[in-house]
Amino acid sequence: MHNSIIYFVFHLAFALNTLLANSQFTSTRNFYPAAYPLAVRSPYLNAWALTQNGTTSLNIWPMHWDDDSILGMTGYVRIDGVAWQWSGDSPIGNRTTLENTEITPTRSIFTILAEWASGDPKQVVTWSTTTAGLSVYHQVSRQMPQPMTEIKNIAEDSNVYFAMSQNPGLTWQTAADNVARTQFMAKGRLLNTQDTNFRRINDRFIVFALSVDLGGIESSTSSTVWSLGVVRDPVVMYSSSNGPQSRSPFFRIQYNHIGDAIDAFGKNYSSAVGTANQLDRDIMRDGDAISTEYGNLLALSTRQAMAGVDITVSLLADGKGNLSDVKAFMKDTGTSQRINPVDTIFAAFPIYLYMDPSLGGLLLDPLFEYQASIVTNDFDVRFAGPDLGMYPKAFGSSGNNENTALENTGNMLVMALAHAQFSGDGTLIYRYVSIIRATLSLNDEERPVFFHQYDLLKTWTDYLINDSLHPTNQLSSDRIAKDNMSNLAIKGIIGIAAMSGISKALNRANDTEFYSTKASELLTQWAQLATLGGHVVSIYNEPSSEGLIYNLYADTLLQTKLVPKDVYDGLTSFYDNRASQAPRFGLPYDSNAAGEAKAPWTIFAAATTTNSSTRDKLIDMAHSRAAFNETAGDFPTTYKTDTGQSFLNYGQASPAQGAMFALLTTRLEIKSINVPASSSQPPDNSDSESTDSAVNAGVIAGAVIGSFVGVVLIAMCLFLLWRKRRQRRDQERLKPIPFNPNLLYRQRGSSGFRLSAERSRPTPAQPSSLVDASPRNHPSRSETYARDSHAPTSPTNTSQSQAYSTYSGSQFTTDTSHLRHEIANLRQQMVEMQAQQTAWAPTPPPRYDNSGTT
């Protein structure tokens, strides 16, 4: 029997091997990446354990995803009076050796597992300890938080929480690092006291410690649970169609108070582990059915992809989250500062389709909403925009450059149809087919607003019809700027085919046929220009150009069957031939980027092959880099084909690695798309002649009267706007037209947003070992979010009714915003009038079988 006491500073699930033998380091799957995801939950809770060059010691500081900031964390275990350090690089205590690792999609399991702490050594921090309720938890934050700001990829407005459920053996302490550690090593317990001298993080490093006495342990292992959280509220500032708003974390739908959330988090651990275990089994079963190497790729990429996304809600008057207003925002981690970058979402989309397609819809909705409601002349609405701005401020892209138009527009149309096909929910595509749009006059000095019916998706598709076949002055997501790129051209053509599928779901027969015909015509011309010697060249008429034509994945995913099988067969043979002479880490994604490989595009290409042998060769290429630990860094998207070295700002820890799920998504069932049963459904104008005879005189009269009233009301509003703008010629930014939808996505389940029971389960918060919550060398990011009030200078039995004080952000109200609200109400009345007219001859939404045919 061993008498064991554990000392922590911060949280996750912790498995302790009390034997601490120096056996050979092994992996249960023979998989040794350069970094293990330790606490990888969000863009700012993103800590990794570095195991470069096969290190077998956890006595190193965990690092932020960019390897630029130390995340101070120390853990000790005291067994039979002897203290062992199992995490961190403190000089105090005996060192331990890592014996075994296993990576699953939801957890990293070590024989000795470490945990996380946060901080910025240049800033003064304040802290508190709460001992009331079901948990004891430390809270630490900057004394002067900087809202919506980050330094070196770390938020400057975070609240960090470190907690453990109440139990008789629990003790805690806040103190200088050497004081708390020495106390534990000597006595095996902490003092339940707080250092009240708030100071800079690197001034006598303050640690936030928890320890638990496990008593006698008769078996070889014993476990305990603690929790680490990084909370920001608001998470994102967003320029919605109702104006700028603060977006709060999704857990606010249930918890108004952080203490309640922490208690529930710890209490729910057993259930979360059970869910995680089942999700692990499901993902690994599906992955291993293809190959063990593919299963490893899924295991390493899952949390990396999910951690790039924040799921948010707006707040109701009572402070709770509004379940009818859920949106997701992605940070372009590892590549840029952009928020909801279209190209990165496209790469990551396979994991969201696999986990739950509604996640993809939540990411697309803000992009659609913003572009559908723009009231400026500096944003070209003919094609899709690239992003929503710079994280965490989703105020819209500063401009919409045409040199990325094909890439972004093709991506958006493909993802819109994919979301509808795999979720069965046509709400998103329905909403953005026919909208009321406002634009500004370019000629009038007063720049009045004009309103017109606008079909967002059709406008984008018309751009693709005109510009896809011969891409000119275009930049691909790979940063290649060449004319006539075949891979970019095929994305645009598949985007047109996607619009045909969207039109079919919306019962627009003529549009369905028109876009299908256009896509087929362009595909025929593309094949003549792009194919040479049985494979596809990357640049038309350049026989020496080659690469992975990974955008064919969109055709495979959507099952449009646009591209003939002989093209796929030719590329498969070409890849197989090139694989025999490929460098260690795979084929270049394009000859114009010689020596560079991309894991996402390698797997996209693998998903398009027509035999398993070639498919597995491509999988093995990506796996070789994922398992490579001779260079530092989390699993990057882009690296050298010969050395595996990654590139700065080319995808380290990027959510784009959700592309690893591409092969699984091609096996998912396409569902019948259900369009909202609304009498205001946009009619198929191109088919109107077939229904003319069914329209009676009453309907015609109602339409005429309704149209006349609508024109008069709009004219009155325009006059009021002109007069007000003449009085106030300010340069304030115009807000989007108000649009107040109900819940955009019919969430699965009866209790709000959750992943489906069969395949789509939530990735639980990562387990973690408690360690010195010594905030070490972390630059902190600044953003505005709901915060606990700062703690007093002594331990507090803070009531769990303590509420957030939510930062609401700037309220950019102008005279035009009120007018837009009035116009929105008028528009709603007009829609109701139209509904009365169309109610005479409602057209049911189309139904499809599993193959997608009528």
What key phrases describe this protein's structure?
854 residues, alpha+beta, 7-stranded mixed β-sheet, 6-stranded antiparallel β-sheet, 18 helices, disordered N terminus, GtaA_N, transmembrane helix, Glutaminase, GtaA_central
Describe the model.
With 854 residues, this protein is of the alpha+beta class. The chain has a domain at 2-236 and 254-259. The strands form 9 sheets. It has a 7-stranded mixed beta sheet. Strand 22 and strand 23 form a beta hairpin. Helix 5 packs parallel to helix 7, helix 10 (486-505) runs antiparallel to helix 11 and helix 14 (599-606) packs antiparallel against helix 15. It starts with a strand and ends in a 16-residue tail after the last helix. The model is unreliable at 1-28, 106-119, 441-447, 679-683, 685-709 and 721-854 (pLDDT under 50). InterPro entries: Glutaminase_GtaA, GtaA_central, GtaA_N. Residues 291-436, 452-664 form the Glutaminase A central domain. Keywords: Membrane, Signal, Transmembrane, Transmembrane helix.
